[in-house]
Design brief:
By secondary structure, the protein is of the alpha/beta class. The chain is built from 12 helices and 18 strands. The mean pLDDT is 93. Bound molecules: aspartic acid and magnesium ion. The site of aspartic acid (ASP) has 13 residues, from helix 6.
């Protein structure tokens, strides 16, 4: 029998009524002839509550710092939300006459590394599930987000990890598709709150989705998309509150017609930092970005410019929240004499706007069209970076919405290709 993985996020299983709604969707796929593996999240808000309890119980109440508490016990606590929803959905399915049972990570087993709180899935042997399906089980309801370490302790995969659980099961059990049910009905050309012209995409390539996911479209956990791409798992993102088809995330070969640009992404709270006039000699970049990495600053764009007398200006961008840490790391390095500059300039009022599309590889002039559109709206570009399938610019934050709208118009993203 063909297999299907269905994953339901926290808002889809937020109470018993919604769990019944989920059960109806599962029943439909059983009737369609699938062996179904359902991956559930905890009820929405539950994991946050559990994390809060762990922090309050630890010796430094309210502390965000891992290490104050035993990470193995953190996992024992925060994995429990999924245990509850998996059992409740199994009961609901049984009430409907479906042969269903719950599976915790250790029962499958979902074998992970022992990096508690951020474990990676290493292997999901399918023997146990295969044997149960062979003896009549119709639905396996699996607790998402959790696994078991080599020494038998419960692990969790990091926040949002049940998307990754779902993709890993689809790969391990050879499912035909992995349907991710969530509270949005698909992937859009851009954020519909910014322009009503945003259009739901029928299909999007893995690589595009990866760029969009890491650029702030928070529909899928980035790791789950990486995994789907590696194992060629076809992913569908769709709403659990409607019956509309969603967006298929798939190999680019499945996408016949390709617009140059698939979507416009943005990231609102960026900062641009410039070290003015640093020495232009080997080792300078390493001396600057080493301390930033150690301080945990999430550096994104980097631009180096020659200024007068063979000295250079080094500009980088990072999230606004990282500016204080970045400033301290750089000033400390200056005090220690490992770097030298005239001035450190921080602009905390910028946003990043990006166009993404695998079609850029074969269409010429895409970047030019982007710059022209921004110029026509009088939007000044502060920094530009490009990759094979992406062009990103930093602009003043107050122009972010306008930039997104004008790029959406310039590339006619409201029209299907
Ligand atoms: N319940 C977990 C979380 O909130 C995992 C998930 O929902 O994907 O992070
Ligand atoms: Mg989620």
């Amino acid at each position: 029998m063909p297999r299907l993985v269905m994953k339901f996020g926290g808002t889809s299983v937020a109470d018993l009524d919604r769990i019944r709604n989920v059960a109806n969707k599962v029943q439909r796929e059983v009737d369609n002839g699938y062996e179904v593996i359902v991956i559930v999240s905890a009820m929405s808000g539950k994991t946050n509550e559990l994390v809060g309890w762990v922090r309050d119980a630890s010796s430094a109440p309210g502390s965000n710092t891992p290490g104050f508490y035993d990470a193995r016990e953190y996992d024992a606590v925060v994995s429990s939300g999924e245990q509850v929803t998996s059992g409740l959905l199994a009961i609901t399915l049984q009430e409907m006459g479906i042969q269903a049972r719950s599976w915790q990570g250790w029962q499958v087993p979902v074998k992970t590394t022992s990096a508690h709180g951020a474990a990676r899935i290493e292997e999901i042997p399918s023997d146990n599930l295969d044997a149960k399906f062979a003896t009549g089980m119709q639905v396996a309801v699996v607790a998402g987000f959790q696994g078991v370490s080599p020494d038998g302790r419960i692990t969790t995969l990091g926040r949002g990890g049940s998307d990754t659980t779902a993709v890993a099961f689809a790969a391990a059990l050879n499912a035909e598709r992995c349907d991710i049910y969530t509270d949005v009905d698909g992937i859009y050309t851009t954020d519909p709150r910014i322009t009503r012209k945003a259009r739901k995409l029928e299909k999007i390539a893995y690589e595009e989705m990866l760029e969009l996911a890491s650029l702030g479209a928070k529909v899928l956990q980035t790791r789950s998309v990486e995994l789907a791409m590696r194992y060629k798992v076809r992913l569908q993102v769709l709403s659990s509150f409607s019956d509309e088809p969603g967006t298929l995330v798939c190999d680019e070969e499945e996408i016949m017609e390709q617009n140059a640009v698939a979507g416009v992404a943005y990231s609102r709270d960026e900062a641009k930092m410039t070290l003015i006039s640093v020495a232009d000699r080997p080792g300078v970049a390493a001396a600057i970005f080493g301390p930033l990495a150690e301080a945990g600053v999430n550096v994104d764009m980097i631009v180096q410019n020659i200024s007068e007398e063979g000295r250079t200006d080094m500009t980088f961008s990072c999230p606004v929240d990282d500016v204080a840490r970045a400033t301290k790391a750089i000033e400390d390095a200056k005090a220690a004499g490992t770097i030298n500059y005239k001035e450190l300039d921080a602009d905390t009022g910028v946003a990043k706007v990006s166009i993404v599309g695998i079609g850029m590889r074969s269409h010429a002039g895409v970047a030019q069209r982007m710059f022209k559109a921004l110029a026509d709206d009088n939007i000044n570009i502060k920094v530009i970076t490009t990759s094979e399938i992406k062009v990103s610019v930093l602009v003043d934050r107050k122009y972010m919405e306008l930039a997104v709208q004008s790029l959406h118009d310039a590339f006619e993203l409201e029209k299907a290709s």
